[in-house]
Fold this sequence. Notes:
Blueprint: H1 3-24, H2 33-55, H3 63-68, E1 71-78, E2 88-96, E3 107-113, E4 125-131, H4 134-141, E5 146-147, E6 153-155, E7 172-176, E8 190-194, H5 196-203, H6 210-215, H7 223-234
Parallel strand pairs: 6-7
Antiparallel strand pairs: 1-2, 1-4, 2-3, 3-8, 4-7, 5-8
Amino acid sequence: MSAFQRAIAICTGIVLATATILGTATITWAGTEEEREDAIEELNRSQEIFQEIAANPDTQIPTEVMRESKAVIIITNVGQGGFIFGGRRGDGLMVLREANSTWSNPAFMTLGGGSFGLQFGGRSSDLVMLVMTQEAIDDILDGDVELGGNVTGTAGPVGATVVDPAAANGDILIYSRSSGLFGGATAGATSIEFDDERNEAFYGVENVTPSQIFTNINLRPAASVASLEQTLLLAE
Length: 236
């Protein structure tokens, strides 16, 4: 074989190897820069809302309860319509507690459904929900959760005094920024779902799943995620 033929063979091999790699790749990048910036804004807004709720004596989450939580869901700008009769929607995120008591990557979520049955009039609200049971987390990951249905959502205890976490009943403990605690009312007919489009845009990976987000540390994208984690740790 001549030198020219050997060069052609080498080049052909490189082309075939490259085609094989590209053909078997499982990661497809998704989302525009504008969509990613929108997701980052939601993350920063969620962090700000958690900080405000944690700093307000009327909605302050007891540290003992926070330490016992298995996940945190933060939902911003929950609907403008009346909550007695009518629909609502809010956007936010969820993080899981890791085995070493740190927090996972955030997965973006939406909240929607019928009425809470609460006297909120036409104001919007921001919510922090502490998920207290593994069963509730499993239901959320399975896409099968409805507050007031298979998962109970109740008002969480507030204040800086020592609280027995066992006395806080419910799969999810709810805190509201707009007018403090829910006053013991339950939240019914409310669904919580993952926002696939926003998750794809934020992480830049097409078809990324909540399980991948929560467990794959290589997906951790930006300094804003570390800032959110630090805010949650300070609340404990």
